[in-house]
Design brief:
The structure holds 2 protein chains of 2 kinds.
Chain A: H1 3-21, E1 31-32, H2 42-61, H3 71-81, H4 85-112, H5 121-143, H6 148-161, H7 168-177, H8 182-215, H9 221-229, E2 239-240, H10 242-267, H11 278-282, H12 293-299, H13 306-325, H14 327-330, H15 342-364, H16 372-401, H17 408-414, H18 417-446, H19 452-486
Helix pairs in contact in A: 2-4, 3-4, 4-5, 4-10, 5-8, 12-15, 15-16, 16-19, 17-19, 18-19
Chain B: H1 3-23, H2 30-52, H3 67-86
Helix pairs in contact in B: 1-2, 2-3
The chains are: A mainly alpha, B mainly alpha.
Amino acid sequence: MSRKNKDNYIKRIVNWFDERFGFTKTILRPQPRYSLHPLYWLGALAFTTFILQGFIGMILLQHYRPSVDEAYESVVLIRDAIPFGRLLSTLHLYGAYAMIILVFLHFVRGYFLKQYMKPRELMWIIGVLMGITTLALSFTGYLLPWTVISKSAVDVSIGLLMNLPEPVNVWIKTLISGLGSDQELLSRFFAFHIVILPAILVALFTIKMHIFEVHGVSEPLKKRFMKDVLDYSTEAEEKVNWFPEILTYYLMLISSYIAALLLISVLIPADLPPKFTPEEAAKYKPQPEWYFLWMYQLLKIEIFEGPIGVRIALGLFTLLTLVVIFLPFIDRSDKVDIWDRPIQVTIGIIAVVELIILTIWAVFTPGMTISIINALIILGLPAIITAAIMYMLYRRAKRIKTGEITLLYEKFIKASPIYRIIESFTFSLLIAISSASVANLINLYALHKLELLTFINIFILFLLSISTLIKYFLVNYSRFISLIGNGELREN
Amino acid sequence: MKIEYTVLILLIIQIIIASWIFTLDPVIQQDRSTILISLNFVITSILLYIYKYREKIYPKNILELDEEWIVAGLAVIIFILLIILFI
């Protein structure tokens, strides 16, 4: 068969299906070129991980036994005797972690770029619900190996929920652990993990994809902003076809991503802690998984101790969740650009900084009660510093906009290549130093070896290193401003 | 070197790696097998990149390369490191 005839033959088959399914008019329709960027694919990567997790889960399901007496032994068997068993169990764990990180990044990006604006409010709400379901999936899966760490962590979580007012606590207990026996708890978590939660996630995904199909890919920030400044909407948008551009780009991303996951699974293999027994549990300080550590650390603050304190804390968490879910209806301003929303952006950055600090802090202080003074210093100081940095940044940005300061980007782009390489290298090095100084600070604090002089020294080092980060932001920002100033929209 | 030759060499390497995986014990040597599978995914990614930009004229100055090139470059570095460190 000649090549031309073969192409026609394939085209006819594709057309035959397309006429019936209408793929090229719906999910496989051409998309704007700007969507071929990794940041636009965070959600897709997260859902692909979910599919991958489903396949790995199906293989593990053939060997796993959801019984208190046999669960741990079946996991040992999977790891030691099944072909690629250790890899699959590690990959299932790291896949869950990767999914949480991707969902978080997707969420943070949506927040900072204000993608919850009309008409995408419901898409945001469904996305947040999907994020909560993802956390629940990881939480339920964590118990299944029936190790001393996973069982203790789940017991702590259930214990906290029991502080909720009646009859809510009774309902929750009945839902997740039935009459309260260990076997019932494991069976229910197993059912949630393999059937109920995946089904909910798929249902939410279907609705989200429908909304996505209706509204399409959200426009990049620069473009949305440009619409107000220039008559940008009249310009024809360059579109790329689903095949080969979008498909090859997606497969390229996925291949690199899976390669990285596989590599991490080999280089940092997950250990299996001992089986849960009450005697063994007494030796461990129960800690939840890393993605719940921030919440756990907050609950360890003195003020939230005791039944009433826990109730207040749980009430605050519920309030926070509701604020995040209904954010599109709370933040009604029509300002889109990051530089026009100083308060929202600062709140977002402080939240992310606090989340990271709480998580790292919890790792170093297992089981310790936190005094209110300590909590205020550890949480308050970074919040004040972040707010101050953001204030300076916005002030400087305003001065750049009004032309008071020379554009750093212009300087950077006109400099020699060697200067640019040195600049970039210095930037990376200083970021590494700042991260190391923060880690050192927390470590010294945890070991109770933190003296005032050491603190000041490390803190100055941190501020010096972070100053380059600010400069980097300014470089990028001034590039943006210079584009507006020149009336150019070219991509560099 | 023409891009077609590069693709051909990478495909041959992929086939060799895939054959190698089949000769390894999936329980005792699963770590090595996993690294080889990972390597094959990296090569797939590079092949897809080459296919995606098959008609592109690449700049000669390394500083003019775009971000995808950096990703591809990193993939190649990982590729080489994997070979040196683990096999």
